Amino acid sequence: MILDCCIVHYYRLATPEHAVQPRIPTSIRRHLPYLLARAYQRQQRLFEAHTRDFDITGRDYGLLLMLESNPGLWQSEIADLMGLDRTTVTYLVDGLQKRGWVAREPDPADRRAHVVTMTADGRTALESIRPAAAAAIDEVLAPLDETERDQLRALLTRLLGH
Amino acid sequence: MILDCCIVHYYRLATPEHAVQPRIPTSIRRHLPYLLARAYQRQQRLFEAHTRDFDITGRDYGLLLMLESNPGLWQSEIADLMGLDRTTVTYLVDGLQKRGWVAREPDPADRRAHVVTMTADGRTALESIRPAAAAAIDEVLAPLDETERDQLRALLTRLLGH
DNA sequence: TATTGTTATACTCTATAACTATA
DNA sequence: TATAGTTATAGAGTATAACAATA
């Protein structure tokens, strides 16, 4: 968990004491992998900053959104949809279940599998967190107008082949 | 370290046994935070896949690039430039030093600080890794033509306020 | 007093391997 | 045999706190 001081650290306008301010050279500053990593880092940190009062991570939130529109997913399906290992999904679902936000039930159609659904408490939690998550996203995307957001969406969608 | 099986897992066209194929709903598939996270995830995994023969992570590689064009950075400057905690930079530089790729020397102008520079071995390693890293980036960006890459660069730069 | 860096430590995330149970 | 999920375990990464050296 990244605490306040780090957010401050990250967002302060750094001005080291000594004269020569180090700069990220253009070759790196215009490097797409660098830009992508930094954008993701910023998104993660702003999400954490805005949701500090709720016991949730960005990925937990994403999983709840998946379950909201797709109730009764198998854990193996969650793994596919999120690009994660089965054991990582077990870990993730364990955490949400401990908070009482999701439930596991054996799938009657295939008793090897467990279907995961949100509980009433989970839905309540999701609703209470949604505004903070939206505020985080607003802050991340603030520099872009609607047209630019659409362009970014289109480019990333193409990049992912989705 | 993500091993081959996971790359395969991630990139195989998943077709679960049971009839109803779960889908990421449009509301999430078009969600910019989701797209950004997935693009970053893809970038990370392709970098790992292409550089498996070299003992290096994407962040190590980024730091070597920083040092290449900006030799003699302080660790605190590295922390600022990469958005990391000081202790994390100590950990990172420790790793590169153990591999003999960077050296720390006290800064004569401010003996509190250590300047970090690449060694000859570090430069050799960087050159041997560069083609694999370039191949990874090529694969990540393959779906985009030059114009689209420029657009993505411009949008992410704006997003970051750089 | 403030800053640079280190160490000790702990927690989160992620994966491997071995297992159980189902199909 | 193959798949779904769990458990035990280990490693990487990241942070906090306390500290030493220097400014």
Q: Label the CATH architecture of chain A.
A: Orthogonal Bundle
Radius of gyration of chain A: 19 Å
Q: What average pLDDT do the residues of chain A reach? A: 87
What is the count of DSSP helices of chain A, taking H or I runs of 4+ residues? 8
Query: What is the subunit arrangement here?
Result: homodimer
For the largest interface, the chains and their residue counts are: A-B, 63 and 63 residues
Kindly estimate the percentage of residues of chain A that lie in beta strands according to DSSP: 5-15%
CATH class term of chain A = Mainly Alpha
- The tally of strands of chain A reads 3
Major sheet size, sense and barrel closure of chain A? 3 strands, antiparallel
Structural class of chain A: mainly alpha
The span between the termini of chain A is: 31 Å
Model regions low in confidence, pLDDT < 50 over at least 5 residues of chain A: 1-19
The gross shape of chain A turns out to be globular
The CATH H-level superfamily of chain A is Winged helix-like DNA-binding domain superfamily/Winged helix DNA-binding domain
The CATH topology of chain A comes to: Arc Repressor Mutant, subunit A
Helix content of chain A: 55-70%
Order the strands across the largest sheet of chain A as they lie in space. 1-3-2
Our count of domains of chain A comes out at: 1
- Reading the helices and strands of chain A in chain order gives HHHHEHHEEHH
